């Protein structure tokens, strides 16, 4: 490397650098998905690992991840789930609940899980991302919803003067829906602790209401 490249390699990323923000997001997902302690980022071994992998990166403190990064990740996931729920086919969302008692004496729990179907764009990216959620087709009359994988629909207009814009919009809708499919979704909406309250019908209903 040249002298300038050597100095550039030793220069630390500022907090607003795109690479630093990307690494912060990746570490946040690691902590959340693997349910790791926030203290991990303050350990010498983790800092040594990051220094070897990305010398320019300064690992933020655990307080940054616990109070800023992971809560931000939570909001992003929550917004995606809300968007997916708003676009559920036929506006139908089914709810299931589960109750259990902790083996470690921490009390009784109840969870509420939502199940629904979205129309998603076809392709491998739609398998792992909710970013391709499409609004369900608006079908008038008494016709049932056609099979998602092989059907298409188009926007119609009663006015003949809007032929150009209507035709363009119709083509877009037909292309999107004809290459889309239905995908089952589910998400845990809430998990609460009932404490030492028994699993009676009244207590469970109070938990569901909460």
Which SSEs are present, and which pair or pack?
Layout: H1 3-10, H2 18-33, H3 44-53, H4 62-86, E1 94-101, E2 108-121, H5 125-128, E3 133-134, H6 163-178, E4 180-195, H7 201-209
Antiparallel strand pairs: 1-2, 2-3, 2-4
Architecture overview:
This protein is α+β, with helices and mostly antiparallel strands and 210 residues long. The chain is built from 7 helices and 4 strands; from the N terminus they run H-H-H-H-E-E-H-E-H-E-H. The protein has helices at residues 3-10, 18-33, 44-53, 62-86, 125-128, 163-178, 201-209, and strands at 94-101, 108-121, 133-134, 180-195. Strands 1, 2, 3 and 4 form a 4-stranded antiparallel beta sheet that branches. Helix 2 (18-33) packs across helix 4 (62-86). The radius of gyration is 25 Å and the shape is flat. The model is unreliable at 142-175 (pLDDT under 50).
The residue-averaged pLDDT reads 77
- How far the N terminus sits from the C terminus, by CA atoms, comes to 61 Å
Number of strands: 4
> What is the structural class?
alpha+beta
Main sheet makeup: 4 strands, antiparallel
Strand content: 15-25%
SS element count, helices: 7
- The topology string of helices and strands comes to HHHHEEHEHEH
Instruction: Give me the Rg, rounded.
Output: 25 Å
Q: Which outline best applies?
A: flat
- Enumerate the spans where pLDDT stays under 50 for 5 or more consecutive residues: 142-175
Helical amount: 40-55%
């Amino acid at each position: 490397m040249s002298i300038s490249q050597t100095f550039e390699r030793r220069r630390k990323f500022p907090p607003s650098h795109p690479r630093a923000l990307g690494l912060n997001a990746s570490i946040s997902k690691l902590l959340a998905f693997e349910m790791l302690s926030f203290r991990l980022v303050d350990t010498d071994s983790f800092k040594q690992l990051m220094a070897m992998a990305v010398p320019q990166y300064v690992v933020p403190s655990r307080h940054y991840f616990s109070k800023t990064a992971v809560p931000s990740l939570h909001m992003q996931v929550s917004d995606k789930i809300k968007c997916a729920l708003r676009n559920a086919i036929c506006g139908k969302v089914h709810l299931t609940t589960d109750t259990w008692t902790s083996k470690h004496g921490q009390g009784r729990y109840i969870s509420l899980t939502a199940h629904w179907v979205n129309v998603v764009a076809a392709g491998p990216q739609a398998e792992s991302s909710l970013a391709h959620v499409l609004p369900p087709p608006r079908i008038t009359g008494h016709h049932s919803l056609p099979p998602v994988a092989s059907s298409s629909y188009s926007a119609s207009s009663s006015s003949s003067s809007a032929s150009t814009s209507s035709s363009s919009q119709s083509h877009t809708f037909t292309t999107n829906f004809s290459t889309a499919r239905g995908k089952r979704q589910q998400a845990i909406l809430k998990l609460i602790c009932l404490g030492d309250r028994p699993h009676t019908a009244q207590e469970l209903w109070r938990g569901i209401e909460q």
